[in-house]
């Protein structure tokens, strides 16, 4: 090693030691003829001094000229800092290294921005110069955390006898689910590989092959139009087990959550993690990934609404729809009439026609512009259902089940944050179970699998597969962290007949099923064990554990929302010869230039 | 869990316990009205008995009808086997489980082959039914070993403060090196991503970003015509370090080799691993990845050859070429005249024009059909140089340096195996260092980088970059295990001027360099530390550690030599709509059918 120590390592006990340090010039200060350099590496920051008597004027001048972010090597002796000059915030803050000379290993040109600057430039510039952006302590912390989380996961599953098996990246396209990324074959003209959307079928095959417990940190790919928190390639912790039920998988992941929270954040998580059924989650929170860091549960007041004179409530209730509400504690003072109007506009984005509201007054009565339409006893009943206290704001949607779910979910999420109802550092993990097997595709009116077509129904709902698909629940479970889906899995169908029946329900005829999934159906015929698994979103986990909100901050080299890598300028133009070899011609209007 | 124990877990101390087992029916035997089933899972084999008094005749009959490879569940009591019926070869061989009934979880149709059968079908059938093939104990062992080796590697680097960073799979095509796999972009018409041949540039960027120590088990891709031991996608343990020299990297990997050999095979490896320079390797073994499990080094006898009357030797030596030889211990008896003729044909494949040979007779004299052309003193000199002993066979090539290297390397490899000069279970690891920076491309006559264009020259050879590129040696090191290249790395160029000079030498002009590697050149301008790294071939490591010779035996779902996955039938045909969305048209003669 060129260095004897890192820039985070030296302490008082090293005083007097001759050391060699390497690192980046974070800062330098010229004080009374001596140059003080903050020398930085991944491990920390050490103060390096070039001054008399150790250094002569030539070296001091040289140090004065070194540009920030240059890479230098210094040899010197560790010394106590002068009294009053120590820095308690710095692990190395009691010492400095006094050097006779410095060697510039690589001078830095004037960079477009420096990692230390507080007013960061726009994300595009940071992505173009990612090697500078990645020097920022926040990015280093996030990626170190990511490495730790993944290591913790791998260790945990190794302790539980899982085998890490790599599944192919060059696979077969199946026109299910999202759009595939395709890879043209040179050897087989007109044929294409597809990058995997998940290792789903391979891991099921591994169970049929008797591997019993499989795990992989797997790269997955989806050619979708990108939302803020999606990337064309993403990482999932993927696992599968044989001879298990849903409880076994959830219990296993409970242990992982607790271990990761403890080892990575030093936090205790009490087990088992709470479990909600899908129905309960929709009823209490209006969503299948509720944020349980705070209460503010949805309350159904339809029965009272029916009895009131308020036209909107009564008409809704009479039509078989719902009046549901949430209570914003302390919201009466926090939200002015104007702000409540703004909340009304907000819920309209989710299909609501309006937002009714009541304030709980000091004397405990409810007041609202529409309160004259309510009997005092009905108001009392509503207050009691919502457990309203003086100062609370009660907010109501009267609409279809779906709209009340969506609207109140969004409202709850917004108010929870605005009213600071939770500790932003808290980590709340839970399960949502017993999802419906199917949902209707709104465009085609056909059944689609809510998870994927390999999901097993609850044993008790097996006969509903044919008699009442809508009511058929799946052996499915999603892990929710702080209101984000952080993983999802199912017990799979392990007999070929049920699998064929599900394909049929999904409108996949026998021939199509054989063409697309023949090898899976085959595998199910030759001794498939009962099995199930889960996939955890690694990028999402890291983001939530790090308390970050932009997924690109936890990925070393992310793509933009247009799926570009601004540093390498991928995707790029290729030679026509390369396309010819792949038996392809581009239909792009004209061959774009390499820099476009 | 459906089961209480695995099939490899029960021992004498469990006798009397009620257990539930799940697994595959490996075998069954009908003995005197009772059915004995060998129940198998990943962990072992347990004998299960359905017979009186526990089971009634209906259950016994049912057991008798269960097809091999079906998945069953049994509940029963652990019992001692009858005296004389224990099986010492089996970990569970002292007990059996006596069951009142069995439940068939999934019946197996008649499979095309069974994992237990000794006469395996051809590899194509095994790959098509990979879920059966992977049940073979050899495959399970290989993949468990693979998982262990990778875990050992990851643990080792975590202990050494490496950060595991994922680099992109969707990258930028650079027309260096092998052929890229391309991925058309939907969002950017006419633009393509490329799958990485290695994370080389990303890991250098990570060093420029100050990550100091990076590691990744990385998937890499090359669209090459496949040789027996190559796959279109392969796995490498990829790492990079800052502020190091070649010794640091080799020392680090020495530790990894020792740890892996110890933990995975229980073998001790003494460190440091031997190191040879490239020149020495070529001189002593004729190859840059010599098998050091045995001696049989190449000896240069050109000086003696010059003095003899043997025309071939003298002409070769006079022309400035070489006469080099190896000694096959005990080869005189082993190889008949006819077999030596066969060896002559063998070396001709490597460009040799013939093969001269001598037998060391009982009395210590050398004999050959051409020995009359040699003075006794010259023969004595040759014998002495080769340290010939009675019974040895001495084999000579007289040719250019290259041909003698290639021919004698091949001959040594063949004879080493045929004469059983080494323990096939032995593991011999070593380093070859100081490779030439450049070699001439035979077709174009241009310089090409022997490793890659980011390799730094030896500091002492820096000035030869311009004055004598041929003599310029690189800071490069290859890890060799049992005569196979198992890894290779270099110290990289960290200053932009040297990098530009190397590009220039390789005929990459300034504009092209900026277009292709602009972001790297940029990174080198903004504070790049000295750095270097290595990539280890994980598939190769597993193959060598497992003592296997076919790389497809250490990969769960490998491709054939035509880059096909026979199980999923990838690559496959895709809808024209998918191509249109990607702005592409296929030039394949006609759209092939989905089953071709």
UniProtKB/TrEMBL annotation, chains A, B:
<feature type="binding site">
    <location>
        <begin position="537"/>
        <end position="540"/>
    </location>
    <ligand>
        <name>ATP</name>
    </ligand>
</feature>
<dbReference type="InterPro" id="IPR045864">
    <property type="entry name" value="aa-tRNA-synth_II/BPL/LPL"/>
</dbReference>
<dbReference type="Pfam" id="PF00152">
    <property type="entry name" value="tRNA-synt_2"/>
</dbReference>
<comment type="subunit">
    <text>Homodimer.</text>
</comment>
<dbReference type="InterPro" id="IPR004365">
    <property type="entry name" value="NA-bd_OB_tRNA"/>
</dbReference>
<comment type="similarity">
    <text>Belongs to the class-II aminoacyl-tRNA synthetase family. Type 1 subfamily.</text>
</comment>
<feature type="site" description="Important for tRNA non-discrimination">
    <location>
        <position position="84"/>
    </location>
</feature>
<dbReference type="InterPro" id="IPR006195">
    <property type="entry name" value="aa-tRNA-synth_II"/>
</dbReference>
<protein>
    <recommendedName>
        <fullName>Aspartate--tRNA(Asp/Asn) ligase</fullName>
        <ecNumber>6.1.1.23</ecNumber>
    </recommendedName>
</protein>
<dbReference type="GO" id="GO:0005524">
    <property type="term" value="F:ATP binding"/>
</dbReference>
<feature type="binding site">
    <location>
        <position position="222"/>
    </location>
    <ligand>
        <name>L-aspartate</name>
    </ligand>
</feature>
<keyword id="KW-0030">Aminoacyl-tRNA synthetase</keyword>
<feature type="region of interest" description="Aspartate">
    <location>
        <begin position="200"/>
        <end position="203"/>
    </location>
</feature>
<dbReference type="Pfam" id="PF02938">
    <property type="entry name" value="GAD"/>
</dbReference>
<dbReference type="GO" id="GO:0006422">
    <property type="term" value="P:aspartyl-tRNA aminoacylation"/>
</dbReference>
<dbReference type="InterPro" id="IPR004115">
    <property type="entry name" value="GAD-like_sf"/>
</dbReference>
<keyword id="KW-0963">Cytoplasm</keyword>
<feature type="binding site">
    <location>
        <position position="451"/>
    </location>
    <ligand>
        <name>L-aspartate</name>
    </ligand>
</feature>
<dbReference type="GO" id="GO:0005737">
    <property type="term" value="C:cytoplasm"/>
</dbReference>
<dbReference type="InterPro" id="IPR004524">
    <property type="entry name" value="Asp-tRNA-ligase_1"/>
</dbReference>
<feature type="binding site">
    <location>
        <position position="492"/>
    </location>
    <ligand>
        <name>L-aspartate</name>
    </ligand>
</feature>
<feature type="site" description="Important for tRNA non-discrimination">
    <location>
        <position position="31"/>
    </location>
</feature>
<keyword id="KW-0067">ATP-binding</keyword>
<keyword id="KW-0648">Protein biosynthesis</keyword>
<dbReference type="InterPro" id="IPR002312">
    <property type="entry name" value="Asp/Asn-tRNA-synth_IIb"/>
</dbReference>
<comment type="function">
    <text>Aspartyl-tRNA synthetase with relaxed tRNA specificity since it is able to aspartylate not only its cognate tRNA(Asp) but also tRNA(Asn). Reaction proceeds in two steps: L-aspartate is first activated by ATP to form Asp-AMP and then transferred to the acceptor end of tRNA(Asp/Asn).</text>
</comment>
<keyword id="KW-0547">Nucleotide-binding</keyword>
<dbReference type="GO" id="GO:0003676">
    <property type="term" value="F:nucleic acid binding"/>
</dbReference>
<dbReference type="GO" id="GO:0004815">
    <property type="term" value="F:aspartate-tRNA ligase activity"/>
</dbReference>
<dbReference type="InterPro" id="IPR012340">
    <property type="entry name" value="NA-bd_OB-fold"/>
</dbReference>
<feature type="binding site">
    <location>
        <position position="176"/>
    </location>
    <ligand>
        <name>L-aspartate</name>
    </ligand>
</feature>
<dbReference type="InterPro" id="IPR047090">
    <property type="entry name" value="AspRS_core"/>
</dbReference>
<dbReference type="InterPro" id="IPR047089">
    <property type="entry name" value="Asp-tRNA-ligase_1_N"/>
</dbReference>
<feature type="binding site">
    <location>
        <begin position="222"/>
        <end position="224"/>
    </location>
    <ligand>
        <name>ATP</name>
    </ligand>
</feature>
<dbReference type="InterPro" id="IPR004364">
    <property type="entry name" value="Aa-tRNA-synt_II"/>
</dbReference>
<dbReference type="GO" id="GO:0050560">
    <property type="term" value="F:aspartate-tRNA(Asn) ligase activity"/>
</dbReference>
<keyword id="KW-0436">Ligase</keyword>
<dbReference type="InterPro" id="IPR029351">
    <property type="entry name" value="GAD_dom"/>
</dbReference>
<feature type="binding site">
    <location>
        <position position="231"/>
    </location>
    <ligand>
        <name>ATP</name>
    </ligand>
</feature>
<feature type="domain" description="Aminoacyl-transfer RNA synthetases class-II family profile">
    <location>
        <begin position="143"/>
        <end position="558"/>
    </location>
</feature>
<dbReference type="Pfam" id="PF01336">
    <property type="entry name" value="tRNA_anti-codon"/>
</dbReference>
<feature type="binding site">
    <location>
        <position position="485"/>
    </location>
    <ligand>
        <name>ATP</name>
    </ligand>
</feature>
């Amino acid at each position: 090693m060129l260095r004897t120590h890192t820039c985070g390592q030296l302490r008082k006990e090293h005083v007097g030691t001759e050391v060699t340090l390497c690192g980046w010039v974070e800062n330098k200060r010229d004080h009374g003829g001596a140059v003080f350099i903050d020398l930085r590496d991944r491990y920390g920051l050490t103060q390096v001094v070039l001054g008399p008597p150790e250094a002569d004027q030539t070296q001091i001048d040289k140090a004065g000229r070194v540009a920030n972010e240059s890479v230098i090597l210094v040899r010197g002796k560790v010394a106590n800092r002068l009294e009053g000059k120590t820095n308690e915030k710095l692990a190395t803050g009691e010492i400095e290294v006094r050097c006779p000379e410095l060697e510039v290993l690589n001078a830095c040109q004037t960079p477009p921005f420096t990692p230390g600057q507080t007013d960061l430039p726009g994300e595009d510039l940071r992505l173009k110069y990612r090697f500078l952006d990645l020097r920022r302590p926040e990015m280093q912390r996030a990626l170190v955390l990511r490495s730790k989380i993944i290591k913790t996961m791998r260790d945990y599953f190794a302790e539980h006898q899982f085998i890490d098996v790599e599944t192919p990246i060059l696979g077969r396209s199946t026109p299910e689910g999202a759009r595939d990324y395709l890879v043209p074959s040179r050897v087989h003209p007109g044929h294409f590989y597809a990058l995997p959307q998940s290792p789903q079928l391979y891991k099921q095959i591994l169970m049929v092959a008797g591997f019993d417990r499989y795990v992989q940190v797997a790269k997955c790919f989806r050619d979708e139009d990108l939302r803020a928190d999606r990337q064309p390639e993403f990482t999932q912790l993927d696992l599968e087990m044989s001879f298990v039920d849903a409880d076994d998988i959830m219990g296993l992941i409970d242990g992982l959550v607790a271990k990761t929270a403890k080892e990575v954040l030093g936090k205790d998580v009490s087990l088992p993690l709470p479990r909600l059924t899908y129905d309960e989650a929709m009823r209490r929170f209006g969503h299948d990934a509720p944020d349980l860091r705070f209460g503010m549960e949805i309350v159904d007041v339809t029965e009272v609404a029916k009895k009131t004179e308020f036209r909107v409530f009564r008409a809704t209730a009479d039509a078989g729809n719902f009046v549901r509400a949430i209570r914003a504690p302390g919201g009466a003072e926090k939200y002015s009439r104007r702000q409540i109007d703004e909340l009304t506009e907000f819920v309209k984005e989710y299909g609501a026609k309006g937002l009714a509201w009541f304030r709980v007054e000091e004397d405990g009565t409810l007041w609202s512009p529409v309160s004259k339409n309510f009997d005092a006893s009905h108001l009392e009943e509503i207050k009691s259902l919502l457990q309203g206290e003086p100062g609370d704001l009660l907010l109501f949607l009267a609409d279809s089940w779906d709209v009340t779910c969506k609207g109140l979910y969004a409202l709850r999420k917004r108010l929870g944050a605005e009213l600071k109802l939770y500790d932003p550092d808290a980590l709340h993990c839970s399960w949502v179970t017993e999802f419906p097997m199917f949902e209707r595709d709104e465009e085609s009116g056909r059944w689609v699998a809510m998870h994927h077509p390999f999901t097993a129904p609850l044993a008790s709902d097996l006969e509903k597969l044919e008699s009442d698909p809508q009511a058929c629940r799946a052996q499915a479970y999603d892990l929710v962290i702080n209101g984000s889906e952080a993983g999802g899995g199912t017990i799979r169908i392990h007999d070929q007949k049920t699998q064929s029946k599900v394909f049929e329900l999904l409108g996949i005829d026998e021939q199509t099923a054989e063409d697309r999934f023949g090898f899976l159906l085959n595998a199910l015929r030759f001794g498939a064990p009962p099995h199930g698994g889960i996939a955890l979103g690694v990028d999402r986990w890291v983001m939530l554990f790090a308390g970050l909100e932009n997924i690109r901050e936890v990925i070393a080299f992310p793509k933009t929302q247009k799926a570009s890598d601004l540093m390498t300028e991928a995707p790029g133009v290729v030679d026509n010869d390369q396309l010819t070899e792949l038996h392809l011609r581009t239909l792009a209007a004209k061959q774009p230039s390499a820099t476009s």
